[in-house]
Amino acid sequence: MIGDLKLRGVRWLVLIAATCFVATAPVFAAPPKRLNVLWICADDHAAYVLGAYGNRRVQTPNLDRLAAGGMRFDRAFCNSPVCTASRQSFITGRYPRTLGVTQLNTPLPAGDVTLAELLGQAGYQTAAFGKMHFNSRLTHGFEKRLDLEDFASGLAARGATKIARDVPVQPRWRPFKDPARIWLNAATLPVGAVDADMSGTYFATQAGQFLNEARNKPFFLFVSFYEPHSPFNFPIEHRGRFDPKQFDVASVEQSDEWQIPAVFRDLTPREKQGIAAAYYTSVAFLDQNVGRVLAALEKSGQADNTLVIYTGDHGYLLGQHGRFEKHCSYEEAIRAPLLIRCPGQVRAGSSTGALVEFIDILPTVLDFCGVPTPANIQGRSLRSVLTGRTATHRPQVFVEYAPNDEAAVRDDQWKLIYERGQRRRTDGYDTGLPLPGRKIRLYDVATDPSELTDVAARPENRDRVQRMLALLAEHLRATAREPAPISGSADVLDQLDTLVQPHDVGPAVTR
């Protein structure tokens, strides 16, 4: 009996000791999953043609839901209003002139590190589907690349759906060879293809397949649609979506006449309405494919652990100032949509008026993903804005368009635009008028958001103009890839004449 009691006592002591050990043993929690990154980009999508930015005519329900789930940036600016310079700039986090890439056909130098390379080195799986404008066969860190060649070969292999001969469709796109009314799709015609045979649908489908692949490491997926770039493509199913008569024709002021490209001067009001309707239809088609990608992300079960970014590569004018393009420093051309969603870290339904440059996106992604930002990155992380710790970001933003020897600086209230005015445009947008020479324009964008009144010559703005010219010159000088060969002149205008010209790293053309 006594022996049994002793044995039971020992058992109780062992049990108590074990219990105490379990209670006091350290708990090793599994490390948090690293964020995935999904960046969706459109070509020529202006911020003002998006429901989330207040447009009640356009049909963008999927992008509007994305905006409602995160933060909308109301004053986000591309660093150059041309595809190559803008895209290569934001994928590297560096200014176009620092890269030596300011013109359309200049290739991204092999030695300049992209976001894909930085995330790849950190263990991410990387892929890019659609338009990148690297202008070479280099993939710049993307392990998987699909573009128009892959789309075309796949479509040829399975065969495209035939379109009835009595359905009017777009002719072959021949910009600057055909009249503008044709290559800008004033007739609001669909592509001769059904939705399933469109490149945008192909890229969205491929993105969906990528998102649903099983993997044991985080991913960075860049999905880049060609819409709504002219001729504003959309499939047969979207024809007639907008009535051109619903669109107002932007008025052109007398003060605009000097800078209107000759190619647009013969457009009739009815043709201008048709161009706008085609653009809006292409945006609606774009939104449909964005929805497909976002739906695939949800289906994959990874949406709550994915940082989602949406951008246009720059803006686009639909008749403002007499122009149907982006190659200038007007707000419609340089302000582009930027939407960022990150569940649990970015408050849903938020917006900000902070001044932001697109080079700020790369360091933001690295910051959220816990990847160190290289010292040569010129962008600044937006994390403090996204998490609500601050409402401001930059005191001013800078934009350059070297093919026109043009650059601009914009702050909260004022925008100054400098043009050398001694280069004949070779990008198809020449005015046909005598070269204007130096042009300095100043707009009070707070009270004159349409930039209709140039106030640079007013006496009360003399000091402001000089300060902003000096600020612009210093920025261009400090961010040049190599020191610009500036003469000994102390005149800031002489310096700007040299600084605003193209200084690219390789051969380039501007069309």
Helix and strand composition category: alpha/beta
What does the radius of gyration come to? 27 Å
The order of strands across the largest sheet is: 5-4-6-1-7-8-2-9
Number of E-type strands: 14
Can you tell me the residue ranges where pLDDT is under 50 for at least 5 consecutive residues?
Answer: 1-30
Share of residues in strands: 5-15%
| Mean model confidence by pLDDT | 92
Number of helices: 14
Principal-axis shape equals globular
The helical percent reads 25-40%
The N- to C-terminal Cα distance equals 102 Å
The major beta sheet can be summarized as: 8 strands, mixed
Work out the oligomeric state of the chains in this entry: single chain
User: What is the string of SSEs from the N terminus onward?
Assistant: HEHEEHHHEEHHHEHEHEEEHHEEEEHH
What is this structure's SSE topology?
Elements: H1 2-24, E1 36-42, H2 61-68, E2 71-73, E3 76-77, H3 83-90, H4 96-99, H5 115-121, E4 125-130, E5 144-146, H6 148-158, H7 180-183, H8 199-211, E6 219-224, H9 269-300, E7 306-312, H10 331-334, E8 338-341, E9 350-352, E10 356-357, H11 361-369, H12 383-386, E11 397-401, E12 406-410, E13 414-419, E14 439-444, H13 462-478, H14 492-499
Parallel strand pairs: 1-6, 1-7, 2-9, 3-10, 4-5, 4-6
Antiparallel strand pairs: 2-8, 7-8, 11-12, 12-13, 13-14
Helix pairs in contact: 8-9, 13-14
